[in-house]
Specification:
Layout (H helix, E strand, L loop, with lengths): L1 E3 L6 H15 L10 H11 L5 E6 L5 E11 L2 E9 L8 H15 L4 E7 L16 H6 L9 H6 L3 E6 L9 E6 L10
Parallel strand pairs: 4-5
Antiparallel strand pairs: 1-2, 2-3, 3-4, 5-7, 6-7
Helix pairs in contact: 1-2
This protein binds coenzyme A.
Amino acid sequence: MRIVVPSAAEPAVLEAMAELALEAAAQISERWLPSLARAREEVAEALGEGRRTRIAVSPAGEVAGWISCFHTYGDVWEIHPLLVAPRFQGQGIGARLVGEAERLIAAEGAGVIIVGTSDEVRGTSASGRDLYADLAGALATFTASPSHPAGFWLKMGYTLVGFTPDAEGPGMPSINFAKRPARDRRGRR
Ligand SMILES: CC(C)(COP(=O)(O)OP(=O)(O)OC[C@H]1O[C@@H](n2cnc3c(N)ncnc32)[C@H](O)[C@@H]1OP(=O)(O)O)[C@@H](O)C(=O)NCCC(=O)NCCS
């Protein structure tokens, strides 16, 4: 599996990224990328100014997954999106893409990496409850089903830092994670 920079000069690759995005996003959300047109927009955004985007290409030349990251404000960088084609999931590709994005972000001198993942599918303990009523309890008892990506981010060393209640509708929050970028041997970011 190679990790490479996608090029606007390769429309077939961009189309493969969009098709993959449509398929992978549908696993967790009905709203995020509801059409191929919207998935193509997501790809176009990922190739825009200030974005760092990488694709995983299989030995057969198929686009297996992709990731993008960007500066948001202050010392904050965000990873969005991360998508691995369903037939390539569970082979370490998501972890490799995250590692690559984290390396890029650390090289920018970032202070924190953030990731948000919505729960529209009742895949975590944060869904279907009033997070305003007991935020501390929801944080302390958080669990995710194996089919929801929240567990993947925990596995990648991200810390649950909060929720955005009702982000995708009543009882459907966004789950917010953060991670400190690696430092070099001199302790610099
Ligand atoms: C979430 C996603 C990116 C994971 O990619 P992947 O290539 O299947 O994951 P990997 O094979 O690299 O898994 C790395 C590790 O995380 C674990 N893992 C993967 N998905 C997991 C999940 N949903 N919950 C808990 N652990 C998970 C794996 O078991 C593996 O653990 P190991 O190192 O002990 O073997 C992929 O399933 C996907 O694209 N899903 C649909 C879109 C999506 O949810 N994107 C993220 C939106 S925030």
